[in-house]
Input
Amino acid sequence: MPETAETTDAPIFDPLAFHLTGEQAALIARAQHLAAAKFAPRAARHDREASFPTENYQDLREAGLLAICIPQSGGGLGADYQTYALAAAEIARYCATTALTWNMHVCSTLWAGALADVLDMDSAVRAEHERRRAIHFRRIALEGAIYAQPFSEGNASAIGAIPFGTAARPVDGGWVITGKKIFASLSGNADYYGVLCTEIAAEGTASRRNTLYLAIPATARGLRVTGDWDPLGMRGTVSRTLEFADVFVEHDAAIMPRGVYFQAASRWPHMFLTLAPTYLGLAQAAFDFTVRYLRGEVSGAPPGKRRSSSVKQLTVAEMRIKLEQAKTLWFQAIAEAQVDPTPDQRLRAYAAQFSTMETANDLARLAIRTCGGHSMFRSLPLERIYRDSRCGSLMAPWTAEVCLERIGRGALYRDGETDD
Output
């Protein structure tokens, strides 16, 4: 039985209670209504088939949401970081894999746009950056191009501990790329892959300071999509492996100038919090399902209401408390996103990431327990919500383990302190 979703759901964050502007509320509502009406009925099929939601991206394109963070002067909607994050949470509420892959696409514009605008560049580098990013923005806003953001390599590069193993060798007119990326969402479905790689200096040394962010066309010679994709959850992301064998790209492929990604990762850490909206949306979805199921409002569930049980009422209350805690912490963290955050703001961002990722699966667990066995049929969304939500704690660069380590160390050591 296909899933359906009401388009009259209240927003996750009430615009009045959270002091959103009218423009923010309207844009978030656009994303929510699209996801409820179009994405939710397709979600089960893409999960079952592990197929990419191509139709959803056509809908995003037509709604202008592929260009949500591109300035209005560049043909986009001009949304800021907070507005994008709130819209992403609403989309995830109905189709988490669409929200997660949309994040990979939007970050290409967010990082090159509003984030880069507050970082240090000399006038010549900034002028060249603005010229180049206009090329990428035009492809998205006017041509409807989809950008991916392959990140992981199966080593410590994603968390910033070592340079990326994917290498960029300077040649006349551009770079030659070699290496591979694993868990590369949108593999085979993006028009461009925004690849983080290390520019190899003349002496052959590799440094994280030399990280480049380059858009490689899907049609580039030497680029291959390999491997299977049959994971536990987030199956519609189709995150297969990308291999680069002497792939040439021109200088205008740069999404950020040389060294600016390293500066961003050091000074604008909230850039890595953009995976969390997907899991906040899943947390809301788990709660929504539970309430509707116990009220007898879920199509395809056994008939009758189950809300009179005091045990079930207590579980719903516990779920609501956990949801409100995660929402409040996460909203505070995204509201604080800025260059050079304070140590407390940085630790709060880690805490928001950890809390969101863990709470999503905890709410799905509680939903299963209180709704009972019939709720786990694959004709209903809870089974998928549980599997998708379990993947959040594994998301690099801020995995659950990384967040715990950084919060603990950050609380016990001030900058520069050691035990020597």
Observations:
- The mean pLDDT is 95.
- Residues 215 and 253 are 5 Å apart (CA to CA).
